[in-house]
Amino acid sequence: MKITKLLTAAFLPLFFIAPSSAQDGGYPTRPIRLIVGFSAGGATDVSARLFAKKMGDVLGQPVIVETKLGAAGTISADYVARSPADGYTLLYTTSSIHAISPHLYTDLKWDPVKDFAPIALAAKYPQVLLVNNDLPVKTLSELVALMKKNPNKYSYASAGVGGTQHMAGAILAARAHVDAVHVPYKGMSAAYPDLIAGRVQIMFDNSPSAIPFVNDRRVRALAVSSAERVSNLPDVPTIKESGFPDFDINGWSGFVAPAGTPQAIIDKLNMAVIKSSQSPEVQQWLTENGSPTNLSGTPAEFATFLKDELAFWKGAVELSGAKQQQ
């Protein structure tokens, strides 16, 4: 009798553990590929690699970042959408890939909702409104006044048609009732030399890329697009504070898997993202780059977030007048 009770007590915990292990098949049993659609060294790539390293530690298998460039990141999404739904190929997606491109490209072979299983939000990037140092303005209200006096005299740069920077500029111009010339570049690295030299005068950029230029005083920051000030730019007001009370725009990045990935695997990946985001290294990177540090929620919450973002950016694309791309 005592032996029976002892055996029952010993194996009872396994009874409760077994179903979870059976559902995810002991996942992961081999390395996981994390697909990134933007060049090495940018904020998206750097944060993806930081999360990948920490997620590998949590999951006990390497998470290997692979870059697949082209068509503003949409090629990376197409690749993952057509990958096996087994949890071994993930997409580190962004606002421009997942929420803007579906309204801008007419020939996408994937659907942002139907073809992906949301895992977790990773980071949010406020946009920083930057101007050339020689432009005679110190505040957003002064910039608006200058532009109203000189319609279409000033130009604003972006990383390309339909990107977050382009959309932020177009929305602000529309709400401020000013006219400016949009100058798209092939990435922000190509735009900064012209902004610094004064060949273009105005630009929005993601906080991770913008903060070093501001701190080095190569450009001037007038405002940030988020609802709250950025901790590493404490003296820079929000656009909301500067006379536009409903202005709250952020770029973001997050994890998705191919549609049909088992829920147990999605939940395990979500857990890995959350644990990784709580690590000191990730917390430090998020703080230094202007992102909130407590973003990761449930897969269902991320799914709701994605649908809300799709609706918001649809209106932004229409407002910007950006032409749909083939």
Total strand segments: 9
Proportion of residues in β-strands: 15-25%
Based on helices, strands and strand pairing, what is the structural class?
Answer: alpha/beta
Looking at the structure, what is the overall shape? globular
What separation lies between the terminal Cα atoms? 75 Å
Family: Belongs to the UPF0065 (bug) family.
Signal peptide: 1-22
Keywords: Receptor, Signal
Protein name: Tripartite-type tricarboxylate transporter, receptor component TctC
Textual characterization of the structure:
45% of the residues lie in helices and 18% in strands. With 326 residues, the protein is α/β, with parallel strands linked by helices. The protein has two domains: 30-125 and 250-320, Bordetella uptake gene, domain 1 (D-Maltodextrin-Binding Protein, domain 2); 126-224, D-Maltodextrin-Binding Protein, domain 2, CATH 3.40.190.10. Strands 1, 2, 3, 4, 5, 6, 7, 8 and 9 form a nine-stranded mixed β-sheet that branches. Strand 5 (155-158), helix 6 (164-176) and strand 6 (181-184) form a beta-alpha-beta unit. Helix 2 packs across helix 9 (263-277), helix 4 crosses helix 11 (299-320) and helix 6 packs across helix 11 (299-320). The longest helix is centred in the first third of the chain and has 23 residues, at 2-24. It is globular. InterPro entries: BUG, Bug_dom1. Belongs to the UPF0065 (bug) family. This is Tripartite-type tricarboxylate transporter, receptor component TctC.
